[in-house]
Structure formats: structure tokens, C-alpha cells
Amino acid sequence: MEIIRLHHPLAAELRSTEPIVLALGFFDGVHRGHQAVIKRAVVEAKKRGVKCAVMTFDPHPSMVLSKVKKTVKYLTPLAEKGDEIAKLGVDTLYVTRFTSHFSSLAPADFVEDYIVGLGAVHVVAGFDYSYGKFGAGKMETLPDFAKGRFEVTTVGKLSDLNDKVSSTVIRRYLGEGDMAAVNQLLGRPYETRGTIIHGDKRGRTIGFPTANILTEHNMMLPPIGIYATRITVNGQTYDSMTSVGYNITFKDEKILSTEVYILDFNDQIYGEEVVIEWHHYFRPELKFTGIEGLVAQLKEDETNTRAFFAKKNN
């Protein structure tokens, strides 16, 4: 998949007469609702024998439109989003820089510059997609702006767990540690990426050596607690249990850490980039008065982790 970055005003050399089918959306999480939009665009492109393109935006619009300083934690930062979109058979990903000038475009100008200008003959988006200044452009009005130059497909609402499948709902479940709901709405296990760094190395002294993960700063982590996870390192995936917390048994620091105990694994992997799949929340972080209590709890966590994956694999 080719990735092309766009910046307003759109450079003349990036305008295209080559026909494409274009899917529109922010697509944070690339959840099942997003997948329905993108898959429909892929189908429409194959029907016409043209390339399929997706347009997303960077950074999150709220960071630009908010009147106060705002940071956003993503379900899928841009690189991860691109990977998931590529898996769906898309040919081109347009990443449009979301700036003040871009956000001020009238709906008609957005259509002229970023739909017609890119050569779209068919546009696919979700029912609640909006475009142009203040989101004034709606899917209902897009055919009026098209003026017969491109067709429009609106993908309807996808519901599950008594709610709309949306990034907002997934964030809510993630904030509650309900990984089963998160993964059901995503259509795959929630993942975070990071690099293995040196930690206190305390785990190895009590029989539970852990990999300390430096997670991408703009990625949303599950809440503090102990989880059944899988970790992929050097192309191999292992069952594991992961702690998100502050190591409160040993210290009172305010630095959040992510530590992974990889089952049946004994190798030096410092510096490696890893992917963690989050499958199940077991318990909150607990403070113990002695090492014996901590070790007993970790042994119970390991037993529960093995049981979880044994059941999941059957």
C-alpha cells in the first residue's frame, strides 16, 4: 500500500485524473464499523477495475479545534492504523494534515479539492461522516456537491453490545478494562507496541523475570491491573501475563510501567520491538507487605493465565 501525505492547499502534482474509489473517515481503531466502510470501497473499486484509496487525517481534529491544549491517546496511532488498513486490500492511503486552514474549508471546497481533485469516481463513508468547516457537510448532501461527477455509498450503522460500534464506545470499554468487549468491537485483539528496555530487574530475583516495555507515548493503554496477554517478539508469539502499574509493593514512584512475564521463555531481548495483544483483565494492582505474598499472587496469576489460554485455544 502506498502512503501519500497531503497538506492544504493541495499541491498541483498531487491532483489526479486516474480514477479511484475513495473511503473517507478518521478510522481510529479500524474497528468493525470502519472495516465495513473500507471493505465496501474495495468491492466498489474491483467492480470498476480501479484502485481503492482511503483518506484519513493527522493529527486528531480535536487537537486542532480545541481552544485549550489537548493531547489524544489513540487506539491505533498512524503507523498501526496504516498496517490495519493495508490488510483490507487498499492500494493507497492518503494522510491529510489536519490544520486550521484545512478545517476552515467549506464543504463544497473540500469536495472540489479532496474528492474531485484526487480523481474519485465513487466515495464511500459511514452514515455519520461529516466534512468541511464545523462538520457542516453531511452524507445526505454529498450527492448534491458531486453534481454527477462521482457516486456515493453511505454505509449504515453497525451495532453490537446494545450500542453503535464506534471508537468512543471502544475507548469506554478499554477504560473499564473490559477487553472482551473491546476485542469484540474491534474484530481482533487490542494491540499496543513498544520497545523492551532495562528495568529494575527485580522480577528475576523472585522467579518472575519481566520484560519492561516502553510503549508509544500516544497509544491508549488499558487501565492499571494484571492481564492475560500475548506478546510477539522476533516474529514469534508467546502467551504472557502483563502488569500495568506503579510497582507499589516496592516503591511509591509515579511512573507507570508495563511489565510482561512471558510464559516458558528465557532469552535476552532488550531493544527488541514487540506487539502486545490484550485479552483479559484479571485483577487490580495490589500492595503486599512482603515478598511471600507477592510471589504467591504471581503464581496464582500465572495459573489463571495458563488456564485462560488453554480454554481459549480449545
Automatic annotation (TrEMBL):
Highest taxon of the lineage: Bacteria
GO biological process, any: FAD biosynthetic process
Gene3D superfamilies to which the protein is assigned, alphabetical: HUPs (3.40.50.620), Riboflavin kinase-like (2.40.30.30)
Pfam families in alphabetical order: FAD_syn, Flavokinase
InterPro entries per UniProt: FAD_synthase (IPR015864), Riboflavin_kinase (IPR023468), Riboflavin_kinase_bac (IPR002606), Riboflavin_kinase_bac/euk (IPR015865), Riboflavin_kinase_dom_sf (IPR023465), Rossmann-like_a/b/a_fold (IPR014729)
Domain Riboflavin kinase: start-end pairs: 185-310
Pathway, per record: Cofactor biosynthesis; FAD biosynthesis; FAD from FMN: step 1/1; Cofactor biosynthesis; FMN biosynthesis; FMN from riboflavin (ATP route): step 1/1
Reaction catalyzed: riboflavin + ATP = FMN + ADP + H(+); FMN + ATP + H(+) = FAD + diphosphate
EC number of the protein: 2.7.1.26, 2.7.7.2
Keywords: ATP-binding, FAD, Flavoprotein, FMN, Kinase, Multifunctional enzyme, Nucleotide-binding, Nucleotidyltransferase, Transferase
GO MF annotation terms: ATP binding; FMN adenylyltransferase activity; riboflavin kinase activity
NCBIfam families, sorted: PRK05627.1-3, ribF
Family of this protein: Belongs to the ribF family.
Protein name: Riboflavin biosynthesis protein
